[in-house]
Amino acid sequence: MHTYKKFLLAAAATLVMSANAMAAEKLRMGIEAAYPPFNNKDASGNVVGFDKDIGDALCAKMKVECSVVTSDWDGIIPALNAKKFDFLVSSLSITDERKQAVDFTDAYYSNKLQFIAPKNVDFKTDKESLKGKTIGTQRATLAGTYLEDNFPGVDVKLYDTQENAYLDLVAGRIDGILADKYVQYEWLKSKDGSNFEFKGEPVMDSDKIGIAVRKGDPLREKLNAALAEIKADGTYKKINDKYFPFSIE
């Protein structure tokens, strides 16, 4: 009887370990889903985009099952820390301020900040020329911080989503937008964006984008290893080429 009890305990322990292992094999990726071509929703409501494809590729390398959890941009880091999802792959710039709240993987792409404005407008991008102009940008982004810190006299209008900034630009309610170059590159190819263009040179060309995890989470190293793998075996390039005719690595 004693031996049988030990067997039952051992079997129960094995089941618990197996259940924990199965639970560990499922991860949730956090994505804003309002930032095309990096992340948005298709006509069926499915999350798509560069970030989603990168996340799926990393999960495949880690041999884990992943699902998507969407979150508004303003609360996306608090949502990660509240364990609404396990890692955040949503075009998040690696900044010192954010490093206080989360840990970042190695950069999975590099970005630049650049202005766009109407094609038929002489739009100079120096500080003096921009004084008094209304420039739109998404709230809680590197572009927003950069505008507020480096362009005194500019009326900075902050938006909850990049798409709402575009709507106001088309309607003539703002003079221009400062945002990630590769996001704007996609929009300029659209019907709404056809009357607009990049203005000046990028004002910041060293914006590194990383995947965020909670502080001290060992998942960071697993993601880094998977990221190195997809870059080495050509998976990363295939995803890159699906969205851009140039490398954004």
What does this structure look like?
The protein has ten helices and eleven strands. The chain folds into two domains: 27-110 and 210-243, D-Maltodextrin-Binding Protein, domain 2, CATH 3.40.190.10; 111-206, 3-Layer(aba) Sandwich (D-Maltodextrin-Binding Protein, domain 2), CATH 3.40.190. Strand 8 (134-138), helix 6 (142-150) and strand 9 form a beta-alpha-beta unit. Strands 1, 4, 5, 6, 7, 8, 9, 10 and 11 form a nine-stranded mixed sheet that branches. Residues 13-23 have low confidence and may be disordered. It is an alpha/beta fold.
Write the layout of secondary structure elements.
Elements: H1 2-24, E1 26-31, E2 40-41, E3 47-48, H2 50-62, E4 65-70, H3 76-81, E5 87-93, H4 96-99, E6 103-104, E7 109-118, H5 127-130, E8 134-138, H6 142-150, E9 155-159, H7 162-170, E10 176-180, H8 181-188, E11 196-213, H9 219-232, H10 235-243
Parallel strand pairs: 1-4, 1-5, 8-9, 8-10
Antiparallel strand pairs: 2-3, 5-11, 6-11, 7-10, 7-11
Helix pairs in contact: 2-9, 2-10
